[in-house]
Fold Isochorismatase family protein.
Amino acid sequence: MQCCARSTAANAACLLAAWRDRGAPILHVRHEFPTPDAPFFAANSPGAAIHDSVRPQANEPVVLKRKANSFRDTDLKDRLDALGVNRVVICGAMSQMCIDAAARAAADFGYAVTVVHDACAARPQSFEGVDVPADHVHATVMAALGAFYATVRATENVWTESGR
């Protein structure tokens, strides 16, 4: 796969295009906050929309979730199992929430997990007066996932190094 893009969205789009070219199963996950006081993922808002660069095609299912963990209270596992999937490749936002939760849950369910680090994004965080820049948040999450839960790869290495 030849992807030279620098942006997270462009890398995710490149990854998605490669998946489509190979005819691999694709499931999109969209987050929607369950109440009207949503901090970001309000129903029918731009924050809850899938980014245009990775918009699902008509034959690509979208799983609606209302929690950080894409498996919690959704049919994601049932869909993956029906497809005979034993390996998942995860990308998106935000690294410190949805990506982390989905990767850990997938590993706990027994899937081999690959997280595409340059197709994921994080936001800056603060804890007890310490401001943590987004790149440090992202690196910390990827390091933790890579230690125990997932293979962490760059977009250009997903196919060559993940055993596919």
Observations:
- The first helix runs from residue 8 to 22.
- Residues 1-5 have pLDDT under 50 and may be disordered.
